Amino acid sequence: MSEQEKLRILIADDEEEIRETLREIFTEDGYEVTAADGENSVLQGIRAGSDLALIDIKLGEDNGIEVLRKIKQQFPQIPVIMITGFGTVSLAKEAFKIGAHDFLEKPLRLIQVRTSVRNALEGVMLRKQLRRNAGGVVKPVIVSESLKRIYEQAARLAYIKEPVVVNGPSGSGKDLVARFLHFEGPRAQNPFIVTNAASLPPTLAEDELFGHEKGAYTGADRLREGCFEQANGGTLFLDEIGDMDLNIQAKLLRVLETGEFKRLGSSSRMKVDVRLVCATHKDLEELVKQGKFRNDLWYRINAFVLKVPGLDKRKEDIAPLAEHFLRLMCEELGIEKKFSPAVLEELSKMEFPGNIRELKHLVARLAVYTDNVEIRVEDIPGRSGNINPVQGTVEQSESGIVDFKAAKISFERDYLRKALRASGGNITAAARAIGMAQSNLSRKLKELDIKID
Ligand SMILES: Nc1ncnc2c1ncn2[C@@H]1O[C@H](COP(=O)(O)OP(=O)(O)OP(=O)(O)O)[C@@H](O)[C@H]1O
Ligand SMILES: [Mg+2]
């Protein structure tokens, strides 16, 4: 298990000796261990990231059973093992009813604690494994209070079957929330199927959602399972639901109400168990008023709406997101880059109408185009009279004098274009002629957006 993937255990007991003994044992077993001695430190520890909690029923002033109740309300996916020095059957029953994973009596036997922990973590590891296999299900960066709230709500909603609408401006992270709803819940082992309602004309949309029998129409030469069938037992993520055709909306409503549908060309109904998550950047209530979204469908899906705010409403997320994306880029490209503190400050002040996606693209460009290890404010396109290597525009200062960097780039562009022309567009020949390594020349051409024709 790599350092990064260590599973995290929280141990809460008001007896320091037990806490420390357990800490030692589990640290030695390769887990990352946090200790807590009361309700506040337990909830804090779990919020900071724990995969499992071991909690004594007696926690000083606090009651471990109440702490268990709070954990199960706020973080239902975390298994909790209760420990008690005075076990009674009714206490154990109560703990299990609230959702405890196991109930251990003191004096603790090492083998018993280890087995219980291992069992509890099995499900956690499986979920993590699946998340990795699902590819690209990234752990979201969550700093702002507003996003924390969204993900806390999502953690609870992951455990119920009701439809959820994820609403928010373009690029704000709706997709990530939808995946979280699936992969943090009990359906994680089952399929997560995505379809986009905006991209399909009505006839194809029906086929996409419900599938067809062989011979259902000309050209239907084999049976096709629709998204509902594919998502059976799992989640169907319907993106851009605000753009769905009204007739298809009616059909969707029927499936939500009955859990049944027919493949095109079939006479029998199929029953499926599918959890629906929808996303849209549009205001569905407004669409209902305009008659573009069915009232009855809206009422069927609007019990749980998660509103993901745009970056303009949570500027404190910008710097940590930028650092997160830079880290990912560096890992991917095998390079080393860092932001100067001023860059993070500058980014935090900037507007990103395309939200997180726009920020991600900007960071990618900075990682690729900046020559130095440290990325400075001047490297941000459009900032302090610099050059935008992507568009290739040179900005002049008020005095009309182009700054040195811009002039240098302008010269380089002319020079390299000439060199390329002289060698008939052959990069190898051009590199040799001007005494530059071919890889450097290629990188430079890309950076300066010089196309070879
Ligand atoms: N909290 C976050 N932490 C890390 N990365 C994030 C976070 N939120 C979004 N992203 C990343 O930002 C990009 C855009 O997010 P996403 O695709 O979820 O947005 P969206 O709201 O679905 O956009 P659209 O409206 O265009 O469909 C993705 O690459 C996503 O992984
Ligand atoms: Mg999306």
Describe the structure.
This protein is an alpha/beta fold and 453 residues long. The protein has three domains: 3-133, Rossmann fold, CATH 3.40.50.2300; 145-309, P-loop containing nucleotide triphosphate hydrolases (Rossmann fold, 3-Layer(aba) Sandwich); 313-447, Helicase, Ruva Protein, domain 3 (Orthogonal Bundle), CATH 1.10.8.60. Helix content is 45%, strand content 15%. The chain has 18 helices and 20 strands. It has helices at residues 16-28, 39-47, 64-74, 89-98, 110-133, 145-157, 174-183, 202-210, 227-230, 246-258, 284-289, 295-301, 318-333, 341-349, 355-369, 404-422, 427-434, 438-447; strands at residues 8-12, 32-36, 52-56, 58-59, 62-63, 80-84, 102-105, 164-167, 192-196, 211-212, 224-225, 235-239, 260-261, 270-271, 275-280, 305-307, 338-339, 374-375, 387-388, 393-394. Strands 2-1-3-6-7 form a five-stranded parallel β-sheet, with helices on both faces. A five-stranded parallel β-sheet has the order 9-12-15-8-16. Strands 4-5 form a two-stranded antiparallel sheet. Strand 1 (8-12), helix 1 and strand 2 (32-36) form a beta-alpha-beta unit. Helix 2 runs parallel beside helix 3 (64-74), helix 13 packs across helix 14 and helix 13 (318-333) packs across helix 15 (355-369). The longest helix has 24 residues, at 110-133. The relative contact order is 0.07. Residues 385-400 have low confidence and may be disordered. The chain binds adenosine-5'-triphosphate (ATP) and magnesium ion (MG). Adenosine-5'-triphosphate (ATP) is lined by residues 138, 140-142, 168, 170-176, 281, 321, 324, 356-357, 360.
